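[audit] Reproducing an earlier prediction to check determinism. Same input, same settings, fresh worker. If the C-alpha cells differ from the archived copy the diff job will pick it up downstream; this log only records the rerun itself.
[audit] input (252 residues):
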Amino acid sequence: MTKSVVSKVGVARSAWRVARDIRQGFLRRQLYCQFMGRNDLVFDIGANEGNRTKIFGQLSRQVIAVEPQPSCVTSLQAQFGANPKIRIVPKALGAREGSAEIMISNATGISSLSPTWVQAVRDSGRFSGFTWAGKQTVEVTTLDSLIEEFGSPGFIKIDVEGYEFEVLSGLSRPVRALSFEFVPEYLAAAFQCVDHLCSLGNTGFNYSLGESMKLALRDWVPRDQITSTLLKYAGNNHVFGDVYSLSTARDS
C-alpha cells in the first residue's frame, strides 16, 4: 500500500475506535444510571485504570476508587487526582484489615489476590497469553471500614478477579445495590457471594454478560433462580459477567 492509503486506513481505524468508545460510554451510563443518582456515594472496588470510575463520577455525587496496584493508582491519580468528586484509596479490600499478597499480571486487569482463581483460569486456558510473574504485598481494608470513613454507598461495583467473596465478607450491613464479577470456572465463589448477600437482606438478582452493559433477565430473580441461571455457563471459558444485586433490607 502507498503511504497515502496507509494513512487513510489509520485515520479510519482511529475514527472507529473513537466511535466504539463513545458508544461503550453511552451504554455504561445507560446501565449504571439505573442504580445511582446525583446525590449518591459510589464505591468502585478494583478501579484498575478508571473506565468505570469516570462513568460513576459523571453520574454520582462522589466516587471512592479502590485499587491496590501501584501502576493503576498512578494512572488514576493522573486522571482524577484534581477531581474533588473522586477519592482514590490505594488499597485492596478483604474480609478483615491487614495485608495480603497480590499476584501481578502483565495485564493489570487480571492481577489477583486469589491463587485459586488464577489457577482456575490458567487451567481453562482463558488467559493463555498472560502470566502472573510478579507478587506484591498490599494493604487490605474492608467495606465496613470504608463505610465508616466515607458513608453508606448507593452502589458498589466489585471487580477483583476472583476475590469478590472475600471483599463481600468484609461487609456486614446491607447496601442498596451492588455488582460483582463472575467467571464460569469459579462459580463456587459467585454462589458464596449470593449467599452472603442474601444474609444481608438482598433478595433480587440479575446479571449481564461481558461488556454488553445490558441486564440479561427481564425481571429480578431470587437466589435459587440466579444460581441455576449461572450454572448454565459452567465450563464455558469464553464468557464472563457481573451479577447485580438489590437490597430490600430496611437499613439500606
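[audit] rerun output stored. Observation attached for the diff report: The chain has one domain: 26-97+143-247.
[audit] end
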